[in-house]
Amino acid sequence: MLLNETAEQIRSMEIRGAGRIARAAAAALKDHAETFEGSDIRSFRHFMGEAACTLLATRPTAVSLPNAVRFVMKAMEGAGNVPEAQAAIRRAADSFLLSSKHAIEWIGEIGARHISDGDVVLTHCNSEAALACILTAHRQGKDLEVFATEVRPRNQGILTIRALNDAGVKTNYIVDSAVRSFINDVDLVVTGADAVTVNGAVVNKIGTSQIALAAHEARTTMLVAAETYKFAPRSILGERIEIEERQTDEVLDPAVAATLPHVRVRNPAFDVTPARYVDEIVTEMGAIPPTMAYIIIRDHLGWGIEEFHKNFE
Ligand code: RUB
Asked: Are residues 142 and 275 in the same domain?
Protein backbone atom coordinates (compact mmCIF):
# COMPACT_ATOMS: atom_id res chain seq x y z
CA MET A 1 0.00 0.00 0.00
CA LEU A 2 1.19 3.54 -0.71
CA LEU A 3 2.50 5.44 2.28
CA ASN A 4 0.04 8.31 1.84
CA GLU A 5 -2.85 5.84 1.82
CA THR A 6 -1.71 4.31 5.09
CA ALA A 7 -1.28 7.77 6.59
CA GLU A 8 -4.80 8.69 5.51
CA GLN A 9 -6.23 5.47 6.95
CA ILE A 10 -4.58 6.20 10.30
CA ARG A 11 -5.79 9.81 10.23
CA SER A 12 -9.38 8.76 9.40
CA MET A 13 -9.21 5.95 12.02
CA GLU A 14 -9.85 3.22 9.46
CA ILE A 15 -6.64 1.90 11.03
CA ARG A 16 -6.87 2.60 14.75
CA GLY A 17 -5.68 1.29 18.11
CA ALA A 18 -2.09 1.94 19.15
CA GLY A 19 -0.68 -1.47 18.22
CA ARG A 20 -2.33 -1.59 14.80
CA ILE A 21 -1.21 1.97 14.05
CA ALA A 22 2.41 1.04 14.90
CA ARG A 23 2.36 -2.06 12.71
CA ALA A 24 0.74 -0.21 9.81
CA ALA A 25 3.45 2.46 10.03
CA ALA A 26 6.28 -0.10 10.07
CA ALA A 27 4.78 -1.93 7.08
CA ALA A 28 4.25 1.36 5.22
CA LEU A 29 7.89 2.40 5.70
CA LYS A 30 9.04 -0.96 4.41
CA ASP A 31 6.86 -0.72 1.26
CA HIS A 32 7.81 2.90 0.76
CA ALA A 33 11.54 2.10 0.85
CA GLU A 34 11.06 -0.33 -2.05
CA THR A 35 9.51 2.38 -4.24
CA PHE A 36 12.67 4.53 -4.19
CA GLU A 37 14.25 4.94 -7.61
CA GLY A 38 17.83 6.09 -7.60
CA SER A 39 21.16 5.25 -6.05
CA ASP A 40 22.00 8.29 -3.93
CA ILE A 41 21.92 7.31 -0.24
CA ARG A 42 21.40 10.91 0.90
CA SER A 43 18.34 11.27 -1.32
CA PHE A 44 17.09 7.96 0.02
CA ARG A 45 17.47 9.12 3.63
CA HIS A 46 15.60 12.32 2.77
CA PHE A 47 12.88 10.31 0.99
CA MET A 48 12.43 8.08 4.05
CA GLY A 49 12.64 11.03 6.45
CA GLU A 50 9.73 12.72 4.72
CA ALA A 51 7.73 9.49 4.88
CA ALA A 52 8.42 9.19 8.59
CA CYS A 53 7.20 12.78 9.13
CA THR A 54 4.00 12.08 7.18
CA LEU A 55 3.25 9.08 9.38
CA LEU A 56 4.13 10.90 12.62
CA ALA A 57 1.75 13.74 11.75
CA THR A 58 -1.31 11.47 11.50
CA ARG A 59 -2.34 11.13 15.17
CA PRO A 60 -0.48 12.59 18.14
CA THR A 61 -1.17 10.40 21.17
CA ALA A 62 -0.18 6.76 20.61
CA VAL A 63 3.54 6.54 21.42
CA SER A 64 3.69 3.20 19.64
CA LEU A 65 3.73 5.21 16.39
CA PRO A 66 6.96 7.21 16.97
CA ASN A 67 8.52 4.18 18.67
CA ALA A 68 7.82 1.98 15.61
CA VAL A 69 8.95 4.68 13.16
CA ARG A 70 12.18 5.25 15.10
CA PHE A 71 12.88 1.52 15.31
CA VAL A 72 12.59 1.11 11.54
CA MET A 73 14.38 4.35 10.60
CA LYS A 74 17.28 3.73 12.99
CA ALA A 75 18.06 0.48 11.18
CA MET A 76 19.40 2.31 8.12
CA GLU A 77 21.84 4.46 10.10
CA GLY A 78 24.90 2.38 9.29
CA ALA A 79 24.00 1.60 5.67
CA GLY A 80 26.50 2.74 3.03
CA ASN A 81 24.30 2.49 -0.05
CA VAL A 82 20.64 2.33 -1.06
CA PRO A 83 20.25 -1.47 -1.40
CA GLU A 84 21.84 -1.91 2.06
CA ALA A 85 19.54 0.72 3.55
CA GLN A 86 16.48 -0.85 1.90
CA ALA A 87 17.44 -4.29 3.23
CA ALA A 88 18.00 -2.86 6.72
CA ILE A 89 14.57 -1.21 6.69
CA ARG A 90 12.96 -4.41 5.44
CA ARG A 91 14.58 -6.44 8.22
CA ALA A 92 13.69 -3.92 10.93
CA ALA A 93 10.06 -3.61 9.81
CA ASP A 94 9.65 -7.40 9.61
CA SER A 95 11.21 -7.78 13.02
CA PHE A 96 8.89 -5.13 14.48
CA LEU A 97 5.82 -6.81 12.97
CA LEU A 98 6.84 -10.20 14.30
CA SER A 99 7.77 -9.00 17.77
CA SER A 100 4.53 -7.03 17.99
CA LYS A 101 2.56 -10.19 17.19
CA HIS A 102 4.53 -12.18 19.77
CA ALA A 103 4.09 -9.41 22.34
CA ILE A 104 0.31 -9.67 22.03
CA GLU A 105 0.51 -13.46 22.47
CA TRP A 106 2.68 -13.11 25.58
CA ILE A 107 0.46 -10.41 27.03
CA GLY A 108 -2.51 -12.70 26.42
CA GLU A 109 -0.80 -15.54 28.31
CA ILE A 110 0.34 -13.37 31.22
CA GLY A 111 -2.91 -11.42 31.43
CA ALA A 112 -4.97 -14.63 31.40
CA ARG A 113 -3.18 -15.76 34.57
CA HIS A 114 -4.73 -12.78 36.32
CA ILE A 115 -8.22 -13.95 35.35
CA SER A 116 -9.83 -16.73 37.37
CA ASP A 117 -12.63 -19.10 36.50
CA GLY A 118 -15.95 -17.35 37.16
CA ASP A 119 -14.50 -13.81 36.95
CA VAL A 120 -16.40 -10.81 35.66
CA VAL A 121 -14.08 -8.56 33.61
CA LEU A 122 -14.72 -5.01 32.45
CA THR A 123 -12.97 -3.53 29.43
CA HIS A 124 -13.10 -0.14 27.74
CA CYS A 125 -12.54 0.83 24.11
CA ASN A 126 -11.17 -1.74 21.70
CA SER A 127 -7.72 -2.94 22.66
CA GLU A 128 -6.02 -5.90 21.05
CA ALA A 129 -3.80 -6.33 24.11
CA ALA A 130 -6.70 -6.23 26.59
CA LEU A 131 -8.78 -8.54 24.42
CA ALA A 132 -5.84 -10.96 24.16
CA CYS A 133 -5.95 -11.37 27.97
CA ILE A 134 -9.70 -11.99 28.01
CA LEU A 135 -9.81 -14.26 24.96
CA THR A 136 -6.82 -16.32 26.13
CA ALA A 137 -8.52 -16.90 29.49
CA HIS A 138 -11.70 -17.88 27.64
CA ARG A 139 -9.78 -20.30 25.38
CA GLN A 140 -8.25 -21.85 28.50
CA GLY A 141 -11.80 -22.86 29.44
CA LYS A 142 -12.37 -20.26 32.17
CA ASP A 143 -16.00 -19.30 32.56
CA LEU A 144 -16.05 -15.50 32.13
CA GLU A 145 -18.51 -12.69 31.86
CA VAL A 146 -17.48 -9.37 30.34
CA PHE A 147 -18.78 -5.83 30.63
CA ALA A 148 -17.82 -3.77 27.58
CA THR A 149 -18.46 -0.06 27.28
CA GLU A 150 -19.95 1.75 24.33
CA VAL A 151 -17.02 4.25 24.02
CA ARG A 152 -18.61 7.51 22.97
CA PRO A 153 -18.26 9.18 20.56
CA ARG A 154 -16.66 6.72 18.09
CA ASN A 155 -18.26 3.57 19.51
CA GLN A 156 -15.20 1.34 19.41
CA GLY A 157 -17.14 -0.84 21.90
CA ILE A 158 -18.96 -2.35 18.92
CA LEU A 159 -15.67 -3.85 17.71
CA THR A 160 -15.05 -5.25 21.17
CA ILE A 161 -18.46 -6.86 21.63
CA ARG A 162 -18.27 -8.33 18.13
CA ALA A 163 -14.91 -9.97 18.92
CA LEU A 164 -16.21 -11.25 22.26
CA ASN A 165 -19.45 -12.47 20.75
CA ASP A 166 -17.61 -14.27 17.92
CA ALA A 167 -15.52 -16.08 20.52
CA GLY A 168 -18.67 -17.03 22.45
CA VAL A 169 -17.92 -14.92 25.54
CA LYS A 170 -20.93 -13.90 27.65
CA THR A 171 -20.90 -10.10 27.31
CA ASN A 172 -22.84 -7.12 28.69
CA TYR A 173 -22.78 -3.96 26.60
CA ILE A 174 -23.17 -0.77 28.65
CA VAL A 175 -23.01 2.97 28.10
CA ASP A 176 -19.84 4.59 29.45
CA SER A 177 -21.67 6.31 32.29
CA ALA A 178 -22.98 2.96 33.64
CA VAL A 179 -19.56 1.75 34.76
CA ARG A 180 -19.90 2.84 38.40
CA SER A 181 -23.34 1.20 38.62
CA PHE A 182 -21.84 -2.16 37.70
CA ILE A 183 -18.33 -1.91 39.17
CA ASN A 184 -19.28 -3.89 42.29
CA ASP A 185 -20.20 -6.84 40.04
CA VAL A 186 -16.76 -6.71 38.40
CA ASP A 187 -13.67 -8.62 39.62
CA LEU A 188 -11.13 -7.09 37.26
CA VAL A 189 -10.82 -4.18 34.84
CA VAL A 190 -8.53 -4.69 31.82
CA THR A 191 -7.80 -1.89 29.36
CA GLY A 192 -5.12 -1.17 26.81
CA ALA A 193 -2.84 1.87 26.56
CA ASP A 194 -1.75 4.38 23.95
CA ALA A 195 1.16 5.53 26.07
CA VAL A 196 2.76 4.86 29.44
CA THR A 197 4.91 7.65 30.84
CA VAL A 198 7.98 7.36 33.06
CA ASN A 199 5.92 7.97 36.21
CA GLY A 200 3.65 5.04 35.32
CA ALA A 201 0.71 7.15 34.17
CA VAL A 202 -1.38 5.47 31.51
CA VAL A 203 -2.81 7.37 28.55
CA ASN A 204 -5.76 5.55 27.02
CA LYS A 205 -9.20 6.15 25.52
CA ILE A 206 -11.18 8.94 27.13
CA GLY A 207 -13.12 7.54 30.09
CA THR A 208 -10.36 5.16 31.23
CA SER A 209 -9.41 7.39 34.17
CA GLN A 210 -13.01 7.53 35.41
CA ILE A 211 -13.19 3.76 35.22
CA ALA A 212 -9.90 3.46 37.12
CA LEU A 213 -11.25 5.79 39.79
CA ALA A 214 -14.45 3.76 40.13
CA ALA A 215 -12.38 0.55 40.30
CA HIS A 216 -10.12 2.06 42.96
CA GLU A 217 -13.10 3.12 45.07
CA ALA A 218 -14.63 -0.36 44.76
CA ARG A 219 -11.25 -2.08 45.39
CA THR A 220 -11.52 -3.76 42.02
CA THR A 221 -8.20 -4.65 40.37
CA MET A 222 -7.19 -2.43 37.44
CA LEU A 223 -4.88 -4.02 34.88
CA VAL A 224 -3.46 -2.30 31.83
CA ALA A 225 -2.28 -4.50 28.96
CA ALA A 226 0.43 -2.78 26.92
CA GLU A 227 3.35 -3.80 24.74
CA THR A 228 6.65 -2.20 25.76
CA TYR A 229 6.63 -0.01 22.63
CA LYS A 230 3.74 1.93 24.22
CA PHE A 231 6.18 3.29 26.84
CA ALA A 232 7.14 6.89 26.15
CA PRO A 233 10.95 7.47 26.11
CA ARG A 234 10.72 11.25 25.85
CA SER A 235 8.70 11.40 29.06
CA ILE A 236 12.04 11.02 30.89
CA LEU A 237 12.80 14.55 29.66
CA GLY A 238 9.51 15.76 31.06
CA GLU A 239 7.86 15.79 27.65
CA ARG A 240 4.08 15.49 27.90
CA ILE A 241 1.94 13.21 25.80
CA GLU A 242 -0.27 15.27 23.54
CA ILE A 243 -3.92 14.41 24.00
CA GLU A 244 -5.66 14.36 20.66
CA GLU A 245 -8.72 16.60 20.50
CA ARG A 246 -10.95 15.47 17.67
CA GLN A 247 -13.61 17.19 15.56
CA THR A 248 -16.65 18.38 17.48
CA ASP A 249 -19.11 16.88 14.97
CA GLU A 250 -18.24 13.46 16.44
CA VAL A 251 -20.04 14.63 19.59
CA LEU A 252 -22.78 17.00 18.43
CA ASP A 253 -24.60 17.38 15.13
CA PRO A 254 -23.24 20.59 13.53
CA ALA A 255 -26.82 21.69 12.75
CA VAL A 256 -27.66 21.55 16.47
CA ALA A 257 -24.32 23.12 17.43
CA ALA A 258 -25.09 26.03 15.10
CA THR A 259 -28.16 26.86 17.22
CA LEU A 260 -26.05 27.01 20.42
CA PRO A 261 -23.64 29.92 20.01
CA HIS A 262 -22.63 29.93 23.71
CA VAL A 263 -21.76 26.25 23.75
CA ARG A 264 -18.29 24.99 23.01
CA VAL A 265 -18.10 21.27 22.32
CA ARG A 266 -14.94 19.51 23.56
CA ASN A 267 -13.82 16.13 22.27
CA PRO A 268 -10.58 14.86 23.80
CA ALA A 269 -9.94 11.32 22.57
CA PHE A 270 -7.73 10.16 25.46
CA ASP A 271 -7.17 10.78 29.15
CA VAL A 272 -4.48 10.13 31.74
CA THR A 273 -4.82 7.63 34.57
CA PRO A 274 -2.29 8.23 37.36
CA ALA A 275 -0.11 5.26 38.33
CA ARG A 276 -1.73 5.01 41.78
CA TYR A 277 -4.98 3.78 40.18
CA VAL A 278 -3.27 1.03 38.17
CA ASP A 279 -2.42 -2.25 39.90
CA GLU A 280 -0.21 -3.73 37.18
CA ILE A 281 0.80 -3.19 33.59
CA VAL A 282 0.90 -6.47 31.70
CA THR A 283 3.69 -6.29 29.13
CA GLU A 284 5.38 -8.98 27.05
CA MET A 285 8.28 -8.70 29.55
CA GLY A 286 5.98 -9.64 32.41
CA ALA A 287 3.43 -7.89 34.62
CA ILE A 288 5.03 -4.89 36.30
CA PRO A 289 3.93 -2.25 38.77
CA PRO A 290 3.46 1.06 36.89
CA THR A 291 6.30 2.59 38.92
CA MET A 292 8.73 0.36 36.99
CA ALA A 293 8.08 2.23 33.74
CA TYR A 294 11.55 3.83 33.82
CA ILE A 295 13.21 0.41 33.83
CA ILE A 296 11.30 -0.56 30.67
CA ILE A 297 12.26 2.70 28.97
CA ARG A 298 15.94 2.52 29.95
CA ASP A 299 16.79 -1.17 29.95
CA HIS A 300 14.38 -2.58 27.42
CA LEU A 301 13.82 0.24 24.93
CA GLY A 302 17.41 1.44 25.41
CA TRP A 303 16.58 5.07 26.16
CA GLY A 304 18.65 6.25 29.07
CA ILE A 305 19.24 9.96 29.48
CA GLU A 306 22.58 9.35 27.61
CA GLU A 307 20.57 8.80 24.42
CA PHE A 308 19.21 12.33 24.74
CA HIS A 309 22.57 13.83 25.68
CA LYS A 310 23.89 12.65 22.29
CA ASN A 311 21.27 14.78 20.58
CA PHE A 312 21.95 17.81 22.78
CA GLU A 313 25.63 17.80 21.89
C1 RUB B 1 -7.77 3.16 20.91
C2 RUB B 1 -7.47 2.96 22.36
C3 RUB B 1 -6.95 1.61 22.78
C4 RUB B 1 -5.42 1.66 22.78
C5 RUB B 1 -4.82 0.29 22.97
O6 RUB B 1 -8.13 4.48 20.60
O7 RUB B 1 -7.57 3.85 23.18
O8 RUB B 1 -7.38 1.29 24.07
O9 RUB B 1 -4.95 2.18 21.55
O10 RUB B 1 -5.19 -0.53 21.91
P11 RUB B 1 -8.52 4.86 19.09
P12 RUB B 1 -4.28 -1.75 21.41
O13 RUB B 1 -9.66 3.99 18.68
O14 RUB B 1 -8.88 6.31 19.16
O15 RUB B 1 -7.29 4.62 18.24
O16 RUB B 1 -4.12 -2.65 22.59
O17 RUB B 1 -5.07 -2.38 20.31
O18 RUB B 1 -2.98 -1.17 20.94
From this structure: yes
The number of distinct structural domains making up the chain is 2
Could you report the predicted ipTM of this complex, rounded to two decimals?
Answer: 0.99
Residue-by-residue pLDDT tens, the chain, 313 positions:
799 999 999 999 999 999 999 999 999 999 999 999 999 999 999 999 999 999 999 999 999 999 999 999 999 999 999 999 999 999 999 999 999 999 999 999 999 999 999 999 999 999 999 999 999 999 999 999 999 999 999 999 999 999 999 999 999 999 999 999 999 999 999 999 999 999 999 999 999 999 999 999 999 999 999 999 999 999 999 999 999 999 999 999 999 999 999 999 999 999 999 999 999 999 999 999 999 999 999 999 987 666 666 655 4
- Which of 105, 131, 151 terminates a domain? The answer is 105
In whole angstroms, what is the distance from residue 162 CA to residue 168 CA? 10
Sequence-separated (6 or more) residues with CB below 8 Å from residue 99: none
Instruction: Tell me which of 20, 156, 160, 228 to substitute to probe ligand 1's pocket, judged by most ligand atoms within 8 Å of the beta carbon.
Output: 156
C-alpha separations of 93 from 56, 71, 170, 182 in Å: 16, 8, 37, 42
Q: How far is the CA of 219 from the centre of ligand 1 (A)?
A: 25
Whole domain around residue 92: which residue ranges?
A: 3-105
Rounded distance from Cα 126 to ligand 1 centre (Å): 6
Choosing from 122, 125, 136 the residue with most ligand 1 atoms within 8 A of its CB, the one to mutate for a pocket test is 125
- The residues lining ligand 1, judged by C-beta closer than 6 Å to any ligand atom, are 16-20, 62, 125, 127-129, 156, 192-194, 204-205, 269
Examine the fold and report which residue of 105, 135, 159 is the final residue of a domain before the chain moves on. 105
Of 119, 125, 133, 279, which residue is the catalytic one? 125
Q: What is the CATH number of the domain that holds 51?
A: 1.20.120.420
Same domain, 153 and 289: yes
- Please indicate, yes or no, whether residues 161 and 184 belong to a single structural domain of this protein: yes
CA of 270 to the centre of ligand 1 (A): 9
Active site residue 125: yes
Give alpha helix (H) positions in the chain.
Answer: 3-11, 18-34, 41-56, 64-74, 82-112, 128-139, 157-166, 179-182, 208-217, 254-257, 293-295, 305-312
